[in-house]
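Data availability (excerpt). The following record was deposited with the supplementary files.
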Amino acid sequence: MIRAILTALILFTGAPAVAQPLIIAHRGASGERPEHTRSAYELAIEQGADVIEPDLVMSKDGVFIDRHENEIGGTTDVASRPEFADRKTTKTIDGVVTVGWFTEDFTLAELKTLRARERLPQVRTGNVAYDGRDPILTFDEVVTIAREASARTGRTIAVAPELKHPTYFAGIGLPMEDAFVAELERLDLTGADAPIIIQCFEVGPLERLSHRIKTPLAQLVGAGGAPEDRPDLTYARMITPEGLKAVARYAAWVAPDVTLVMPRDAQGRSTAPSTLVADAHAAGLKIVVWTVRAENIFLPLEHRSSALPAVHGDMAGYVRDLADTGVDAIFSDFPGLAREGLR
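Predicted structure:
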């Protein structure tokens, strides 16, 4: 019950909450199961995640599909399906030339015939054993997983969908915003107290959504570069005190790369935390960092167990360090280890 109350405080109140950070399961427990699958989400909830995250792209017939990217050659068995061989193509997505199979070239019915695969098989070799077990999910199905788990556990299990490449999808005749608002209305997720946080790296979609729904919004911020729809507005400018005030006019959260809160030196060792957490809170924003992973290759030097990149280091210790900075939430591929770090 206490966990449920704290989760609600951090999710739904306007001011940053004084509590343990929320644990957001990044694509589910994606360190232990193929990402964006029912298996990954259910394991994450079992391990104590407060929020589960689906990345959203669109099908040819305008359904929101739960995949990290619209290119699905690396996360499904589509490449082994002869009936779809002629769908392989080359596209430019947000300036990046990409070869593969794309969700917008498939109907929902076709996508539902595919099965998920591990995206990082050379790093997460154990996850390969689960290849082929789970179908692709829709956003509606992820919300159902969260709601059923909330009823089962007595905890508030929220969802944190990320709208992927909205400018690109609008350019190919699949504008996301109207369809997404309609989906949120159908699912009764448009209120200020709805158990959801909507994320995007682009600015315009969040600004427009802020005038249409009361749902909490999160501005994602990369370690470099700029939003696809605002190339003149760099992420570095967005996390200055003035930039954060501008974000606070349309969003409740700012979501930076973890190294913007806890930078690393040339050797990969953490240095003193930046002022970003304090600056975000001063602007009235809550702050969530992404993404904490257990493998040595992703950890700062002081938390690595060895030079072997795929072996786990001390992720729980890293989570404790991040919690000490005052962040309000942490994205992790390993929600169980993240929860351990907060005990």
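Summary of structural features: Residues 2-69+137-341 form a domain with the TIM Barrel fold (CATH 3.20.20.190).
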